[in-house]
Design goal:
By secondary structure, the protein is mainly α. It has one domain: Four Helix Bundle (Hemerythrin (Met), subunit A), CATH 1.20.120.1490. 79% of the residues lie in helices and 0% in strands.
Length: 157
């Protein structure tokens, strides 16, 4: 019985180590989640092997993109302060208006981001890099768009 127990424990430890290795290997090609745009920037620079000139053009586009999003984020923040700061005093019509305004700003932000990536693809990347860019983009956006990892998981009722 003791021998079987050690075999089972040994197999389980080996399986856990194998699983950790697979998980670690699967994520090494993506930037860490929510380390900001700089991790995404460096990830694309490295994965696409951007030249110095391409990097300068890309950095200019990033600055423009960040400036465009800054005002939208400020507006979203103010609307959310109104929505959540006045919960007891707000009527359903005003609540709906604020929710629609926040949603419209999110749509505007997504459109600006899509246009940014399209511009990066079409003006910075070579045709060979464009193919790789297309493959990397969805994984990058999914990774960046995830909730912050250090947030606690939702509680079960």
């Amino acid at each position: 019985m003791k021998k079987t127990y050690y075999w089972v424990v040994g197999v389980l430890v080996a399986l856990n180590l194998a699983l950790l290795l697979v998980v670690w290997q699967g994520h090494k090609h993506l930037p860490p989640p929510h380390k900001g745009g700089m991790a995404a920037k460096q990830f694309l620079i490295e994965e696409l092997s951007l030249s110095s000139e391409q990097q300068l053009a890309y950095e200019k586009l990033i600055r423009v993109h960040q400036e465009q999003l800054h005002e939208i984020r400020e507006q979203t923040h103010e609307l959310k302060k109104q929505l959540f700061g006045n919960m007891s005093a707000i009527d359903s019509l005003e609540e709906n208006r604020l929710e629609r305004a926040i949603a419209d700003l999110q749509i505007q932000q997504d459109k600006i981001t899509l246009a940014h990536f399209r511009t990066v693809r079409n003006t910075v990347c070579t045709p060979a890099q464009q193919k790789k860019f297309d493959q990397l983009l969805l994984a990058l956006v999914e990774r960046i768009g995830r909730p912050i990892d250090n947030m606690p998981p939702p509680r079960k009722p």
